[in-house]
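User: structure tokens for this one?
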Amino acid sequence: MSQSGRTVPAGTWLIIPVYNEATVLAEVLQHVLSTFDGVICVDDGSSDASVAVIRGTAAHLVSHPVNLGQGAAIQTGIEYALRQPGARYFVTFDSDGQHRVEDALSMLELLAKDEVDIVFGSRFLDDRTKLPALKRAVLKLAVRYENATSGIRLSDAHNGLRAFNRKVAAALALKQSGMGHASEIVGKVSAGGFRYAEVPVEILYTQYSRSKGQSVLNSVNIVFDLLFR
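Assistant:
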């Protein structure tokens, strides 16, 4: 039972890719560990104190010796989680404070009904998320492209908050080490014929994430992925 009073399904593992997020990571981990027992942090070659922060918590730590990219970190986390006894459900969750535990729990509740194999979070199913104009435009372009090429109908193809079952986790085997992993996941879901759903989630674009230039940088990465992958 989580602090919110909602039950976390048995065998759930939260996978958090980490790269130089020591400024906010302790707060993020305190929050998720108050709800989830199974938390895996994959440090992707951080040069700051991220590893020390993780080691000071109950989260499992897996480390890349060099920075390989978010997709590679997620795949490492999935492989680690699959080896844990009783692992059934998997959630990808960002380390910078943008994702909400409450949204992850809602996605897991739907997943646990066994009506779908993967649940995608969407910023566009309600108006809670306040997106910068450039990022909104790029994401809308990305989802039109993904829908046209994958056969899957989504409103938000590049949201990092996802929940999926063991069948999907075992089938992903991500090869795209960078931002292209989001498109690859959509493609694998389509190719595998997995059942999917979207739910509205709120992404918190904080002062911290904006100070890193993340919104603009991620938008550029998404465009690059769409044009050249």
